[in-house]
């Protein structure tokens, strides 16, 4: 009887460990997806700012030329 209880306990412990590992893996996937989207958003923002910093003077220059002519 005692060995049967130990066997069932070790099986339930293994099932609990498996559940914990799966939960951790799902949480890790979710967190990495969030982090990836955050980094992508920041990168796109800085890329947009860099484009504006380079292109805006040209647009303003053309606009001013158009006003003066």
Task: Report on this structure.
The chain has one helix spanning about 1-69. The protein contains 1 helix and no strands. The chain is mainly alpha-helical and about 70 residues long. The radius of gyration is 30 Å and the shape is rod-shaped. The termini are far apart.
Keywords:
mainly alpha; 69 residues; single chain
What are the SSEs and their pairings?
Layout: H1 2-68
Residue-averaged pLDDT: 85
Shape: rod-shaped
**How many strands appear in the DSSP assignment?**
0
SSE string, helix = H, strand = E? Answer: H
| Biggest sheet layout | none
First and last CA, distance: 100 Å
Unreliable segments of 5+ consecutive residues: none
Radius of gyration: 30 Å
The helix fraction, in percent, is over 70%
